[in-house]
Amino acid sequence: MLLNRYKDFSTDLLLEKAINESFIYYTKEFKDTLFRMRLKSKIAQDLIDVEFTDVKPDMTFISLGDKEGDIKFTQFKKALSILKKSVETNYPDNLTLYDYIDKKLSDGSVSQSDINTFYNDSDWGIKDKSRNSTGIGRLVNQIFPGKYTSKEVEDFVNSFKNVNKPGENELKLVKGQDIKKYYLYTNYAEESGDLGNSCMRYTRCQEYLDIYTQNPNQVQLLVYLNEEDKVLGRALLWVLNDEKSEDIEGAEYFLDRIYGINDSIKKLFQDHAETQGWAWRTKSGYSDTKYITYKGEEHSGVKMSIELDKYDFNYYPYMDTFKELDNSESKLYNNDDEDRNWTLNHTDGTYEDHNGVWSDWEDRRIPEDEAVYSDWLDTYIYERNAVEISLGNRRYKGWWPDSHDDIVYDQFREEWIHTNDSTYSEYLDCAFYDEDSIEVITWTEDDIYSQERNRFRFQSESVSDQWNGYISHSKMDCDDYMEHNGDYLAIVDDLVKYDDYTGKYYFIDLGVTVYETKEYGQLVKEDCDILGVKPNGKSWKTDELSYLFRNKHIEEILEKARKQVKDLEVIESGKQTRMKFEDDDEYLEKVKQKIRNLNWRISILENWLD
Fold this sequence. Notes:
The chain has about 600 residues and is α+β, with helices and mostly antiparallel strands. It is about 30% helix and about 25% strand. It is elongated, with a radius of gyration of 43 Å. Residues about 1-20 have low confidence and may be disordered.
């Protein structure tokens, strides 16, 4: 126990002593481990982020330790000393090289490849000299003191121990719809390496894969899965027919390009292919389709073919090896030595049709029966990605790519038009056919009373007359007022409301209730009170514009309102003799309020007449 406590004390002392000044660097194996953990571990990401920085531990060149959960490191100053001796030993004629190395390591500008060289190359000696060991948990606590709880550090340590274990990982062959499942990126353990860069990993590519799923006798998928059924690597396994080169004459199966999260996964697949006696693709470049390894020997110029049960599909995947399809004999080939119908080398589900027509827009040949000619572009385009313009200027009519910047969709006519034949509506936030353009009122000023006689303020904008969100001015109760002022614009229906009694619309913000009276005809409640008349019970809604424009009694209403104000002001001043009551203050307040209401009405009517 004493010895163990001394060892712990010595390690802590070494780490404490290390909290001085240095730049922290990781070996490739240690960094790869952190990268595999980073998506699920904040600590792993934080460790990645502090590399190449001065975190004040005199420890660097961190690598995996000999035991699970351990790491090894070299003190920064010791590493510089080792490198200096290496320069003196191996480069005695170039001693200034050490000054360059010292500068790069001391300011964090050194490259990862140089770190790997200093660590792995025996000429430099970092890997084998003056290495110290400690637990990964202690490293975390020393670099990030107090940032993480003991439980968080413990979970990270357990993940760190397990990440390099194969666990329940398994190689498995699948076919049919399972091929689509394991191609999809959401079923990947992580999006990294060749696997994470696969152009066929997306959801949109699922419909391209029918040539695999519907030919189970010719193709399967070899997948390497972790214990959560997530993909670590995948490669297609093809059944070869007899039409192949002598170099692989005995091969019945061919393992296509391997997609893995790292190179070790790819090596696992290659070793498995050798064990099974399969031929496998040696190189992964676009043109390396004829470089094949079989029974441990690499061959070039190898020709292979696959005879499919089904070949006719709506979409096709990008093919790594068997790019050439001869649909007359339903065969795939890995070489382009002969003219064949289609080349399956597109990532959008299409293919290159050698019997098709050239498209400048697509920059390739496309199937003639899927093409239409665009007069404006003077080239063929895919009909499925094209729209036909039949509206507007004759020079713009015809077929256009649906993604062309010079065309827009008129949602009201449900037709495509050229931008030069369109008008943009700020109010509707869309473009439409310019010959359908009309001006409509989109805003009104609710305070009409400070304006000149018979005018009110509004804003108008262009909209399409095919739009059903407006009404004609003729449907307004105030249409006589609007025509009197030359305002023949339509109005957006959000500004108006329909009255069942009049069968007309009125402006909501200017709305008033009008009552029928025997003596004066139509009056609002305020004017009934001023004139001393009672409504007969019949009422309806209109707007102030309609009411004031048609009212023939405004001057009489004004005269009586002014007289009432004068009479009330006499009462308010106390000049008129009257009896006092207990609630006299309340009575006087009502008088004042009455005066305010009358003055407000007077100002409205005066401004209307001015």
